[in-house]
Amino acid sequence: MSAEFPEVRARRLRGTRALRAMVAETALRPAELVLPVFVKEGIVDPQPIGSMPGVVQHTRESLRKAAADAAEAGVGGIIVFGIPADKDGLGSAADDPEGISQLALSDIRREVGDDLVVMADLCLCEYTDHGHCGIVTPAGTVDNDSTLDRYASTAIAQARAGAHLVAPSGMMDGQVGAIRKALDGAGFRDVPICGYSVKYASAFYGPFREAAEGAPKFGDRATHQQDPANVLESLKEVGLDLAEGADMVMVKPALSYLDVIRRIADTVRVPVAAYQVSGEFAMVEAAAANGWVDRDKAIMETLTSIRRAGASVILTYWAAEVARKL
Ligand code: PBG
């Protein structure tokens, strides 16, 4: 309270739960949440992921149930990451019509129809034996343009399998344009593309690489993923993706990049998605397991902050759990 302005009070609207709820500026909707899922070829039971408590590598059967369950909870979408039994230099399983991702996408479509937006992550790192996101040259670098051909044919395979939307996450230049052209040429003009337009070279993907078995066997992803120090190149990446025909754009990770989400949400005229990645999930779960943070409150606080920063779609491993509580 200030002596000069005794009538000024910031706390008046915080007095009761009902008052706080009435003036809340940010709310989450189940339909804007997207559940990332892992499905592995050749396993008979779902496999727990050590660094992601409660998340599993699904069998086709358990994935069908998880999709039905997510739809029932009101979740908006599901994004599929497939882990093939056999990997090679080209990532041949990525565009194989009988590959695990395509089988899982069509299983999910059969299970939920149009009740969920069935999204396909489009990258090669889960399918290549070296764990890189594209074709590796003899010199050991990821070759941009030959990788685009692989992405184009993977997008067609995913659309044929029933994906409602494809989400290229490999950070190759020109990937959205190449995929748009391929989809249009194959009769999939109506399949939208959500670019992982802004993707930082982040330590927070650590648990995912265990889950998706896609850690690079040598080197890192710093020549194609972005430097956490920068924001200008995020604006550039988004501009390029929109010019190439992206229908939505994504920022990833979320929590360390709320300023980037805000900058982009203020700039573009398309929906902005944000990916609360595996390391963000694992940090909260690990701290909560130790009794160091209140798990449920921490989850809601992170998601509300991502929404407040300007994301209108949020990918989160807690999607089904949170949707049920909203
Ligand atoms: C690449 C991809 C990655 C994630 C989503 N898509 C990993 C990477 O770039 O190494 C990370 C997601 C997460 O950490 O939850 N296919």
What would you note in describing this structure?
The protein is an alpha/beta fold. It is built from eleven helices and twelve strands. The chain has a single domain, classed as TIM Barrel. Strand 6 (135-136) and strand 7 (142-143) form a beta hairpin. The longest helix is centred in the middle third of the chain and has 18 residues, at 144-161. It has helices at residues 17-22, 60-73, 100-112, 144-161, 175-185, 206-211, 232-243, 258-267, 278-289, 295-309, 319-325, and strands spanning 33-40, 47-48, 56-58, 77-83, 117-122, 135-136, 142-143, 165-168, 194-199, 248-252, 272-275, 313-315. Strands 1, 2, 3, 4, 5, 8, 9, 10, 11 and 12 form a ten-stranded mixed sheet that branches. Strands 6-7 form a two-stranded antiparallel sheet. Bound molecules: ligand PBG. Ligand PBG is lined by residues 121, 123, 125, 169, 205, 208-209, 221, 277-278.
What kind of oligomer do you see? single chain
Termini separation: 36 Å
Low-confidence stretches: none
Class computed from helices, strands and strand pairing: alpha/beta
CATH superfamily: Aldolase class I
Shape: globular
Question: Order of helices and strands, N to C?
Answer: HEEEHEHEEEHEHEHHEHEHHEH
* Mean of pLDDT: 96
> What count of helical segments does DSSP give?
11
* Name of the level-1 CATH class: Alpha Beta
- CATH level-3 fold name: TIM Barrel
Give the % helix: 25-40%
- Overall structural domain count: 1
- The tally of beta strands, per DSSP, is 12
What does the radius of gyration come to?
Answer: 20 Å
Summarize the main sheet.
10 strands, mixed
Strand portion: 15-25%
Named once each, the bound ligands are: ligand PBG
**What is the name of the CATH architecture?**
Alpha-Beta Barrel
